[in-house]
Write a structure and sequence with these properties.
The protein has 265 residues and is α/β, with parallel strands linked by helices. Helix content is 42%, strand content 12%. A 6-stranded parallel sheet has the order 2-1-3-4-5-6, sandwiched between helices.
Length: 265
Amino acid sequence: MGDSQERTPISRRTILIVDYVGLRSEPPLTALRLEDYGFRVVEILRPPYVRAFDAAGYASALIEPHTDAGSDVAAVVTYCMAGSIAQEVAARLSTPRYEVPLVVLDGEPSTGEAIQEQWGTALRRIAQMVGADVAHDVTRALSDDELLSRPREIAREIHDSMTSIGAQQHPDGEGPGVARDVGIFAEWFSDWLVYLIAAHNAQWPYWGGDVLQLISKSHPVAGWVGSRSEEVVEISTDRDGLVLDPGVKAAVLSFLAERIRDGRG
C-alpha cells in the first residue's frame, strides 16, 4: 500500500467527511487522521446544522459553502445513517471524468423506528432535566408516507412535545432557567432529528461511483443502491472500535489510492 500511496497523484487530495457525531459514543471519522497521508480533510456536516427535510436538499446545503473543493474531491467518507446524504453529495460532485467514490463505515438506513426511538430518547433526557415523568406512549409510530409527505409538521410535533414537558412542569412560569435549558436542548435535538428525517427521505440516485463498506463485527452488509460497484471489508472489532481499527485506515487508503491513480471514482 505504501508504493500505491506514493504513486497517487496530488491532483485529488480533498476528503469530504459527512458525519453527524450527535450523541454517539463512537469516535468521529476525523479520528482516521487522513490528513497525515497528505489529504485535506473537510467536515461538511457541522453546526449550524441544516434544516432541510430530504437527503437531496440537505446535501445541496452542505456543499454550498464548499464549492472551492470542486474537482479536488477524492472521496466522500461517511458513517451510519448519513450514507444517503453522503451519496447525494458524491453524486453532485461527480463529473464524467471522475465519479466520486463513497467510503461508508457501518452504513444503515434511517427508518421511522429509529427516528421514533431518538424522539423517545430526547423526551427522557428532558424529563430528567425537569424532574418530570414521561409516559411510555408519548411518542408514536412514524410511517414512511408521512415522513415523506409531512416532514416539517412531524419535526414541529417532535419539537413541541419536548418543550411542552417543561411547560407542564412549570405551568405558572416558574423556573425560567429550566425552561430556557429545555428550549436550548429541544433546538439542539431537533437538528439531529431533522437530519434523521432528511436521511430517511432519500432517492438514492445512481451516480456511477464505487462504494467501500467497512463493517464492524455483526453489522449487516447494506446493498448500496445507485453505486457502480461495492467492496465490503469486515473488521473484527465492535462498533465502538471500528474507526480506530488499523485495518480500516489501511483499507481506506488502498481504496483511495487505486481510484485516484486510475482516475476512476
